[in-house]
From TrEMBL:
GO BP term, example: peptide transport
Gene3D superfamilies in the record: Dipeptide-binding Protein, Domain 3, Periplasmic binding protein-like II
Name listed for the protein in its UniProt record: ABC transporter substrate-binding protein
Species lineage: Bacteria, Bacillati, Actinomycetota, Actinomycetes, Micromonosporales
Source domain of life: Bacteria
Domain Solute-binding protein family: 85-470
Keyword Thylakoid on entry: no
Keyword terms: Signal
PROSITE patterns: PROKAR_LIPOPROTEIN
InterPro entries: Peptide/Ni-bd (IPR030678), SBP_5 (IPR039424), SBP_5_dom (IPR000914)
GO cellular component, one term: periplasmic space
GO MF annotation list: peptide transmembrane transporter activity
Range of residues in the leader sequence: 1-27
Length: 563
């Protein structure tokens, strides 16, 4: 899912992008809380592309990043509703708004330090934000460029050292953000890693992605294609961090895309597998019934629902005919897709892009898919036939982009079968999962349908609708890789309504506006929501502290330890 907000491309990964904290709250998968010490092993299906906080885009990247990087605020690390609340992280509190939510002030805590022992200062926060404007690399999270005043023509610090006037330091500990519009939930926004501090002297631009300078409980000791090794940061101070518990002495992240083998190893839980957790993939479908029906296995699986949505984006530039897009929505067989993924444990059927867990959710089903989970191919065929008669035929061959992984290909096969029923041939474009989101993040990509998913950065429609559907955020620079509006929807009326919703200061009114926008976008058939996702991650017998954090739809890494 991207996030971080786009949901991750992997079956249970998620475009996210929110940086959450961690604790020992509710250690559900074991009778006792984790102990301090030892080495935890974490399996990921593909190597995270970005660790640079200004470039972090997916939920997996965000989950790993917060081991290294602290932000002004962060999310509580507790199961349930509390996990959607923020607390001060580097800052003493969640922010102090003024001037009708157009100005936000934060004060840094005493004795917060980098991995070399130097203090983290306001200047580091300011520089971290400013470097996201530099143009030296693509930045996935749009919030700094969207919300900060006087940012339209700002070229970043790499072009002569210019400063951004809307980020000001009164002294080493006090920072002020001036916004271009009222933002009532800006305290949540600065929990995003794009607002994380970076010391200017340590900035290696592209090289910072390989080894960012640590402010969190761990620093990066090794970073290769097959594994990353996190060891303790001796200058991280527990007294300044009430969220992260940092139980293990070492965390080893290893890449293994063979999901059935990973699941089988964790079920058997021999040797090192006893200390291992699968982070970004659900239990392999052929093992699901065994896990959920065996009390011992079910007890150590880390499972839960969250606000993530698996969906297909429909490229509205390449498929410009609205009725042709509607035909694709009507024809989609959600039952076949979910069955191949493992059944109802994978998720509930979706009809909207804002999930039911969010207060901004509006319950609607424009294409009657909840009552027709196998699709309505007859309606799709009529729409296509009408367009043929009108001299505007729908394409009979389309390209679907997916991350090139075995389990994703299996699910993509159900999509191929679905559209064969209405005479459309689907060509699969398998993309290296390590670079998948960078490839589809180029607006010039030549795909008609794009495999995607989204976890909101915080629990509001403002973390769903603007990043995914505000056409003003589509990058225009050639070769850009940071687009998250995969449908390339750029509707002026929808863009204006997004601005109006962001400016609404009364929460209940804003929730209503986001729900109405969700429905308005559905009318454009820009996406096909498939399932509201659930997680079922397997853990070894020695893993403790696991719960699914809604900010990335994965086990909260900082809560994990050993028995």
């Amino acid at each position: 899912m991207r996030r971080r907000r786009t949901i991750i491309a992997t079956i249970s990964g998620l475009v996210l992008l929110a940086a959450a904290g961690c604790s020992d709250a509710d250690a559900k998968n074991g009778p006792q809380p984790p102990r301090t010490g030892g080495t935890v092993h974490v399996v990921v299906s593909s190597k995270p592309t970005h660790l640079d906080p200004q470039r972090v885009a997916t939920a997996t990247e965000a989950n790993l990043s917060r081991l290294l990087t602290r932000t002004l605020t962060t999310f509580r690390s507790e199961p349930g509703a509390a996990s959607s609340e923020i607390v001060g992280d580097l800052a003493t509190d969640a922010g102090r708004p003024s001037e009708g939510n157009r100005v936000w002030d934060f004060q840094l805590k005493d004795d917060v330090r980098w991995e070399d022992g130097t203090p983290i200062t306001c200047a580091d926060v300011k520089y971290g934000v400013e470097r996201s404007f530099g143009g030296a690399f693509s930045v996935a999270q749009p919030y700094a460029k969207t919300y900060l005043a006087n940012a339209e023509n700002y070229a970043g610090p790499y072009s002569g050292g210019q400063e951004l006037s809307s980020v000001q330091c009164a002294d080493t500990r006090n920072i002020r953000f001036t916004l271009n519009q009222p933002i009532g939930d800006f305290g949540y926004t600065v929990a995003m890693s794009v607002f994380a501090p970076v010391p200017a002297k340590q900035d290696t631009k592209d090289g910072y992605d390989k080894k960012p300078f640590a402010s969190g409980p761990y620093k990066l000791q090794e970073n290769t294609e097959q594994q990353m090794v996190y060891v303790r940061n001796p200058f991280w101070n527990r007294t300044t961090d009430s969220v992260r518990k940092a139980y293990p002495d070492k965390i080893v992240v290893q890449v293994n895309g063979d999901l059935p083998t990973v699941t089988s190893n964790l079920i058997t839980s021999d040797g090192e597998n006893a200390d291992t957790l699968d982070l970004d993939k659900n239990v392999a479908p052929n093992f699901v019934q065994q896990v959920i029906n065996d009390p011992a296995l079910s007890a150590r699986a880390v499972q839960g629902s969250y606000g993530g949505v698996r969906y297909l984006a429909i490229n509205t530039k390449r498929i410009a005919n609205l009725d042709c897009r509607k035909a694709l929505v009507y024809a989609f067989d959600k039952r076949k897709f979910r069955a191949a993924a493992g059944g109802s444990v994978y998720g509930d059927y979706a009809t909207t892009m804002i999930a039911p867990q969010l207060k901004a959710h509006k319950d609607f089903d424009l294409y009657d898919s909840a009552n027709n989970v196998e699709g309505k191919p007859d309606v799709a065929l009529k729409l296509m036939d009408d367009q043929q008669k009108a001299g505007k035929p729908c394409a009979n061959t389309l390209t679907l982009s997916i991350p090139d992984q075995k389990d994703v290909r299996r699910l993509a096969a159900t999509i191929v079968e679905t559209y064969q029923q209405i005479g459309i041939q689907i060509k699969i474009n398998g993309i290296d999962p390590n670079t998948y989101f960078d490839v589809i993040g180029n607006p010039a990509n030549a795909n008609d349908l794009l495999w995607a998913g989204w976890i909101p950065d915080w629990a509001n429609g403002s973390a769903v609708i603007p990043p995914l559907f505000d056409g003003r955020l589509i990058p225009t620079k050639a070769g850009a890789t940071n687009n998250q509006d995969y449908a390339l929807l750029n509707n002026p009326e929808i863009n204006d309504q997004i601005s109006a919703a962001l400016a609404e200061s009364v929460p209940d009114r804003q929730y209503r506006l986001w729900g109405e926008l969700d429905q308005r976008i559905a009318e454009q058939a820009a996406t096909i929501p498939i399932v509201y996702m659930k997680a079922l991650r397997m853990a070894g017998t020695n893993i403790r502290g696991g719960f699914i954090h809604p900010q990335f739809g994965q086990p909260d890494l900082c809560a994990i330890g050993l028995a």
